[in-house]
Amino acid sequence: MNFSQNRPKVYFKTFGCRTNVFDTQVMMSNLKDFEVTQDESLADVVVINSCTVTNSADSTARGYINGLKKLPKDPRVVFTGCGVWTKGEALFKEDKVDSLFGHSEKEKINELLLNESRFFQAGDLTHIDETIVEEFVGKSRAFIKIQEGCDFRCSYCIIPYVRGDARSYSEDKILEQVTTLAANGFGEFILTGTNVGSYGKKQHTSLAKLLKKMSLIKGVRRIRMGSIEPIQIDDEFKELINEPFMAKHLHIALQHTSKEMLQIMNRRNKVLSDLELFEFLSSNGYALGTDFIVGHPGETEQIWKEAMENLHRFPLTHVHAFTYSKRDGTPSAIMKPQIKGDIAKVRYNELIKIIDDKNYNFRKNNTQKLEVLIESVKNGKYIGFDQFFNSLEIDSPVDLVGDWVFIDDYEVKADKNVARFK
Q1: pTM of the predicted model, to two decimals?
Q2: What are 171-186's pLDDT values in tens digits?
């Protein structure tokens, strides 16, 4: 990565998931003839790493593109990410962006940006990157991409069509990546991918085996994972849950808690086995998050009522909830009946309230010392996440960014924990 004073400046705008965060870092690592800037007003080129999981994600990216006209240097606009496969052609034809390239082309970013003519290189959906990322600009935690794509075909999801089928990075490449970042001072690692739990299944290995090997690398202190499917938490994985390197938080994708709704969504998980799994993990001290889609076609009032009754039984602490967003080309897009937006919003708020209450009670009842990696400072307060992935705000007279702190005296507030570091 270059920070020369004489090279054209490139600003990266990243939307969406942790996988995109990693992909942006791959692009930064492959720039040779350009300077990375974190100030978009100085940019000669703006690279937009897009998300397309919902209509809102598409419209947010389009709104950002329109706003770039106000920048003083009138930067060249280059579009990449998942949105290339859904909205890229329209943006290109409308001259909203100057050029586009797909996921598989991102390691070629330097030569692509040297090409000053307009181009549209979508690439393929089978590529695996070779880049070893040495740093994460502006981050205290390191994101490690271990796989790409998804073999699931949930009825609502566009992602397999823009990321391709599941394929794993080589174990040696991942361990080299972790070793490099650990040597550069990173202690917390977050495993990312389109479907993290599918890692290794075509290579005769597994996520659990990878975790064990990562834990042996000097400097690795805590490992988190992106979203995992319930059926991917097998006996081999369960043997690791009390290892000290495991963050005491897992994000397990339920998507719904109605048996009928899961069938409509073409999901592979089952409510009763999901509940059994969550109760097992909770009994071992885990905070548990999930994804939940509200207002999917076919979600009748009776189904919603059943889902919420079931949800109360789950020992959840976090949720990534969103109202259903129609994605053209998916089976759900033509399903009936569609759920009205005002009804979906009411249901969404009901869901959020339930999980907020569960999270507050979890934090209130916790008796363990908090192990916190401080990531940032805002308005004079230091902010980090504990082992349970709950936010902690610390008042401190000394700079704590990048430090690990251990806190047992703190106040539990509605949306976070707060403490004073002496």
Answers
A1: 0.90
A2: 999 999 999 999 999 9
Average model confidence (pLDDT) across the chain? 94
Is-contact 344 300, C-beta < 8 A? no
Q: Which residue has the tokens 């085996």?
A: 209
Count how many Cα atoms sit within 13 Å of the Cα of residue 134 in the half-sphere of its side chain: 4
Cβ-contact 46, 98 below 8 angstroms: no
Q: Which residue bears the tokens 């409509």?
A: 264
91 alpha-carbon distance from chain centroid: 25
DSSP letter string, 130-148: -------TT-SSEEEE-EE
What is the rounded distance in angstroms from the CA atom of residue 160 to the CA atom of residue 295? 22
Distance CA 343, CA 297 (A): 12
pLDDT of residue 137: 67
Q: How many CA atoms lie within 13 A of 366 on its CB side?
A: 28
Instruction: Write out pLDDT tens, residues 387-413.
Output: 999 999 999 999 999 999 999 999 999
Mean pLDDT over 65-75 rounds to 92
Distances in Å between the Cα of 154 and the Cα atoms of 161, 193, 270 are: 11, 17, 14
Could you tell me the end-to-end alpha-carbon distance of the chain, in angstroms, rounded to an integer?
38
Tokens encoding 60: 């947010």
Residue type, 350: E
